[in-house]
Amino acid sequence: VLLLFFFIILPSMNLGSAIYIAILLSALILYFIPTFFNAALTWMVLEVKKGKDTTLAQGMNRAGKNVIDIFMFSVVSLAISIIASIIRGKGESRGRDVAGNVIEGAWSLVGQLILPSMILTEHTFWSAWTEIKEYKHTIPQVLVGSFGLGILFTVAMVIAAIITIFAFSLNIPLGILALIGLVLPLIILSAMIRTIFFALLYIQMKKLA
Questions:
Q1: Burial class (CB within 10 angstroms; exposed 0-12, middle 13-18, buried 19+) of 76
Q2: Is 142 helix (H, G, I), strand (E, B) or coil?
Q3: How far is the CA of 95 from the CAs of 78, 89, 91, 150, in angstroms?
Q4: Which residues contact 129 (CB under 8 A, 6 or more apart)?
Q5: Hey, is 84 helix, strand or coil?
Q6: 54: which DSSP letter?
Q7: Model confidence, pTM
Q8: Mean pLDDT of the chain
Q9: pLDDT digits (tens, 9 = 90+) for 121-168
Q10: Of 105, 107, 129, 109, residue with least CA distance to 117
Q11: 3-state helix, strand, coil in the chain (%, to 5)
Q12: What is the pLDDT of residues 99-126, one digit of tens each?
């Protein structure tokens, strides 16, 4: 929905190229920041798997060595989301909706293993793609990680949303408290668990620890 607003509705509003570029850069930053932290977490998972102590600072330092690759990963992620949003258009066609979802879903599956390939080995963003042929052996695990965890957290998110809506119906401060205390932590927890799962899957696949 946000991408539809950014890249289909906004351009039709004639806001000017400078504002549009600023919005595009803002969207890229929103993709880069969580990707960078996921990269840091991926490195921390490997260190813990090896029986070593590690910190977030060490993970971020390691991620910093691949900052260009992480940036490229973010650019491609954003580009794919834009393309998928354009294909969906305004939701006038069920077929276009499915096509857009397939494109995003395919990138989500591949991207979950491209990221650890960049961080846990000597691969760059581009050379990490050479390992795609090896991923066919992990299809069952990838599907479990993507759809199994997705369903689990979707159910949890629905419950959290219902509680939050009910809290807002009582009073606004209580609703804000529910939003901060339930919904936001659940979003962060979902991203962290997915990152940990796919990092462990890649470590097992490549026998890194």
A1: middle
A2: helix
A3: 22, 11, 9, 23
A4: 114
A5: helix
A6: -
A7: 0.80
A8: 84
A9: 878 999 988 888 887 777 788 877 777 888 888 899 999 999 999 999
A10: 129
A11: 85, 0, 15
A12: 878 888 888 888 888 999 999 987 899 9
